[in-house]
Design goal:
Length: 79
């Protein structure tokens, strides 16, 4: 199956966050599609990031920190 914008869940239903970082992402951006757009990553990269949060870059952490209004240090501690 090819992951693209047409087969992503627009409403966020069906995605249950399993980590604190995923909770922050879902609270901040609401859907995987919005997360992908805001972090400027492709769908496969987003899936990899959600499976292994250690793959996140500092630029992505900084973007999440700004959008979620959470300090970078607190966000890093969630990893």
């Amino acid at each position: 199956m090819i992951l693209n914008d047409s087969n992503m869940n627009k409403k966020g239903r069906g995605w249950q966050p399993k980590t604190k970082l995923q909770d922050v992402l879902l609270d901040t951006y609401k859907t995987k599609s919005v997360i992908s757009n805001k972090l400027q990553i492709s769908q496969p990269t987003l899936m990899r990031l959600l499976a292994d949060e250690k793959c996140i870059t500092f630029k992505q952490i900084k973007t999440i920190s700004t959008d979620a209004n959470i300090s970078i240090i607190k966000l890093i501690s969630l990893l």
